[in-house]
Design brief:
87 residues; 16% strand; two-stranded parallel ribbon; 20% helix; 5 strands; 3 helices; alpha/beta
Length: 87
């Protein structure tokens, strides 16, 4: 089983990395818009130390029931928290 069989894509904000592949796994690196387009059930946050920032930035995944996963120091699943906006 290859890495790309388990993980469909990786998102990176750096345009210089988008359109390329992770070494050794052939997993494509795409822009954040792919998250909205594909509406994944789970988003793995690899930089676990930035999980709060990433979850805040991607809170919109709650619109389709998406959740976040980290695995360091242990496997954890988080529900996104959307803050209500008063207009």
């Amino acid at each position: 089983m290859k890495g790309s069989d388990l993980i469909e894509f990786v998102v990176d904000a750096a345009p210089s990395k988008q359109g390329k592949y992770l070494p050794g796994s052939h997993i494509p690196v795409v822009e954040e818009a792919s998250i909205r387009e594909l509406e994944p059930d789970f988003i793995i946050i690899f930089p676990w130390n930035l999980k709060d920032e990433v979850m805040h930035q991607l809170a919109y995944v709650s619109e389709w029931g998406g959740r976040f996963v980290t695995f360091i120091p242990s496997l954890q699943v988080f529900e996104p928290e959307l803050k209500k906006v008063v207009v």
